[in-house]
Amino acid sequence: MVGFIGPFVCGAAVVHLRTLRPEYIREAFPRFGITYASVVPLLLKNVERSLRARFDELPPARRRVLDTLIALNRALTRRRPHPRLSRLLLPQVHNAFGGKLLALIVGGAFTEPATLQFFYDLGIPVANGYDLTEASTAITVNDLKPFRADTVGKRLPGVEVRITNVGADGVGEVEVRGKTVMAGYLDDPELTAETIVDGWLRTGDLGWLDPEGHLHLVGRKKNMIVTEGGKNVYPEDIERAFEDLPAKEFCIFAANYLWPARSLGGSESLVLVLRPDGDAAGPDGLRDEILARNRRLADFKRVSGLLVWESDFPRTASLKIKRPELARANVAALNAGHAFGETAEMPTNVVGYRVAPAEVTPGEYRTVSGTQALAWGLLAGARAAGGGPPRGGRERDPVPVVRRPSGPGGRGVR
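The structure assignment produced for this chain is given below.
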């Protein structure tokens, strides 16, 4: 609605592409002189990867000049965007977008703060926000005064936002009220009564409001993991620590969500499901990348296992990852390779068994039907990580390892 009716009311033309193929998108910007573009996070991420790849191909001298100009533009636009100044400093970048682009508008799913900052540093502001179909649709928008990559912005006029059932960490459920909130779900009074209480729409999203009125989202209520120690773990929050990982896509699951009633290194273990980037470094390089990010996280937030999924992640029409469907696909693929017994310990020729850090050998593989999973202990004891014990000064338990065949593996279940 905003992408069509809004521009028409302002007398602007709307260019609607029939395909999201990169070559058509690149051609549209200079051909039509695009000034504003609405995109989804996945498309924005793909454009970022393409630009970074081009930057990496530059000769060292030209790359140093580019980095200097980007840093200068970042410093001069810290308080607010300056499109003309940015075009003078980085003309080739802006000419690739047609030379008239003022801002990108992104929504529909979570956008990594690093991606937002990347484009802003190039002089291309990205106005991200928070929207729901039930609220028709935008609730908050980042007004770029100043630019902040860490929030989804402030509430729009006529919309009320509050946080309820706040926990010890200050995070609670986001509720919304206003004239744009729907009257209810068609022919489903029970769901309507659960979702709208006293005029407030219970979004099911978790977040908090800062003193400036900016909304911070940390994840979905249904995705939240509660550890035995009473800690709340938000998968989306942890995923931000891995956002620049050399992978096409990834997400976090609780191990016991994938394998109920079975331990994968302890009831608090988290598993990273990852689709590798074809140009990424080998097993050792990716393992080091994950370990480095793990060290920056609290103990109960650290990833303890890894599954490498070689097919596209299932996604909604707005390109959000369908987490339950992806989890079922992983479990179905693993179960197809072996029928787990009733014992708490899984067989060592399948997945999820415990192995001492010294036994972990990158490149050593065994078959796991339907998926390919790297044979690394991700959060091993101090000596395997190469630098002192984990936080708290104690060695962690041996970590789970998932393995794959040394030759070409089977495709994942989609």
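Interim note for the steering committee: The longest strand covers residues 200-209. Residues 261-267, 337-414 have pLDDT under 50 and may be disordered.
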